[in-house]
Amino acid sequence: MASFVLEILRLVPSTSSLLSLYASLSTSLMLLRNAYHEFIPQKLESFVSTKIKNYFSRNKNQPSYDTFIIDNSWEGLSRNKLLDIARFYLSSRIGPKNKIIRIGKFRGEKSFTAGLVKGERIVDVFEGVEVSWFFGDREMENGGGEFFEISFEDKYRQKVYYEYLNHVINTHKAMTEEEKILKLYSRTGRHWESIDFEHAATFDSLAMDYELKKAIMDDLDRFLGRRDYYRRIGKAWKRGYLLYGPPGTGKSSLIAAMANYLHYDIYDLELASIRSDSDLRQAMLNVDRKSIIVIEDLDCNSKVHDRSNSDDSNSDDSNAYASNFTLSSLLNCVDGLWSSCAEERIVVFTTNHRQVLDPALLRPGRMDMHIHMSYCTSQGFRILASNYLDIKDHHLFEEIDGLIQNMDVTPASIAEELMKSDDADTALEGVLNFLKLKKKDKDKIEEEKEADLC
After folding, report:
1. How confident is the model at residue 422 (pLDDT cuts 50, 70, 90)?
2. 248 DSSP 8-state letter
3. In sequence order, which residues have a C-beta less than 8 Å from that of residue 452 and are 6 or more positions away?
4. Which one-letter DSSP state was computed for residue 305?
5. Taking 70 as the threshold, does the pLDDT of residue 327 lie above it?
């Protein structure tokens, strides 16, 4: 055992040897250090050092991201309006990093419109927070395949949800109200499609007696200013109008004038295209605020006829609507529980024959104001002459007035005569001859009736 220990001790270097080895290593390290500082720049040294630190610490400091998805896959009846808002908002955020963009020039717009292409990204900055948008498309079980993804650091989740999205909505509102182009919507399948509405009709240009025009305008003004009133009395903020009278008396022109006066979009709802009660509810729910819902030629649909006079309920015409909506569903959408799902809307019904409509449709709350679109009057003729010929008086006016007062002639037929010439004398002579022929035909019919009675 003692010999083994002695052998081990002989293998251990002496103190002098260890000191010599240490001195040698120290000298080598000093030489390497001097060479490192001499041949490696300080900037490169700092860059390498930073990269090494980042490499070992990146897993600890890498931020976590959250994502919001905007799509139309929600279960329900209405479209996700944030899709349209986002598309419009992002059109103003397209920058040089977006190498592929969609552009167009549309009617009524002064400049080109830019749009984001599917598959592209946009990085938006809001109060120092970076928000990344991705526009994509995919097949979904419910709704369309178009969607947006919004990605951001999770520590800003509340800010993005409560502040940034409101910023997007408010920006969209300001952009659209700055130069709003009215839209005319029609229903294709289960969705509303729109075109620009550029009808020039105004209340000043309508061939309608002044008192009636003023009554309509006053009623519209009163409606606009009564939001709090409607809420206080517990009623939906809406208004219903019935325009009735023979064809050609200006019902469509009055609707256009109302839209231009209120600056409301128009939704043209054809009842013949409605397939079921749920389809009708969906159509009504997808109408935006500040809109006029127009249901024209109401008398042409057997569902809304007076039920007490439904002797032909088994006819082929009636059966054609067997799979469509029910009258109770229409009433519910106009003045029932479903009507309270949207505010600041006007519903306008038109008919040539008011007497055939079910009385349930005609009561206040459904059709609040009944407007008789009558044949042309002397006052209406003067407005037409001013619109078409730019004249306020003429020596033929008195004779024309006398004929119009005793005739059933529509404003549309008078307007057609006025359009035949730009010369006032020629155009008014044409109107006078037209009225004389109408009077001759009327007198002949009356004579034949008297002869039959004799």
Report:
1. very high
2. T
3. none
4. B
5. yes
Which residues, including other chains, have CB under 8 Å from residue 296's CB and lie 6 or more apart?
251, 252, 268, 270, 349, 350
Residue 267 CB neighbour total at 10 angstroms: 24
pLDDT at 318: 42
Name the 3-class secondary structure at 225: coil
Assigned token pair, 322 = 């067997």
Strands of 265-268's sheet in order across = 191-196, 183-188, 265-268, 291-295, 345-351, 238-244, 369-372
* pLDDT score at 310: 46
Q: How high does pLDDT run on average in the chain?
A: 80
Interacting residues of 86 by C-beta distance below 8 A, sequence separation 6+: 70, 133, 148, 168
Q: Return all residues near 335 (Cβ < 8 A) that are at least 6 apart.
A: 240, 365, 366
Q: Give the lowest-confidence range in 107-111, 155-159, 198-202.
A: 107-111
pLDDT computed for residue 323 by the predictor: 47
130, β-bridge pairs: 125
Burial category of 385 from C-beta neighbours within 10 Å (exposed 0-12, middle 13-18, buried 19 and up): buried
Residue type present at position 75: E
- The first and second tokens of residue 371, run together, are 């407007």
**In which residue are the tokens 């006052």 written?**
379
Instruction: Write the DSSP symbol of residue 162.
Output: I
Query: Judging by beta carbons within 10 Å of its beta carbon (0-12, 13-18, 19+), is residue 32 exposed, middle or buried?
Result: exposed
Q: Is the separation of the CB atoms in 121 and 90 below 8 Å?
A: no
For residues 276-294, b (16+ Cβ closer than 10 Å) or e, as one string? ebebbbbbbebbbeebbbb
How far is it, in rounded angstroms, from Cα 284 to Cα 20? 97
- Binning pLDDT at 50, 70 and 90, where does residue 172 land? confident
CB under 8 Å to 269, separation ≥6 — which residues?
187, 283, 284, 293, 294, 295
Distance CA 149, CA 137 (A): 11
Task: Give the pLDDT mean for 79-92.
Answer: 84
DSSP 64-115: PEEEEEE-S--SSSS--HHHHHHHHHHTTT--TT---EEEE--TT-SS-EEE
**DSSP secondary structure of 313-353:** TTSHHHHTTTTS--HHHHHHHHHSGGGGGS-SEEEEEEES-
CA distance 441 to 342: 51
Mean pLDDT confidence for 214-237: 88
381: three-class secondary structure by DSSP: helix
Full set of structural domains in the chain with CATH:
65-179 (no CATH), 210-301+323-372 (3.40.50.300), 378-453 (no CATH)
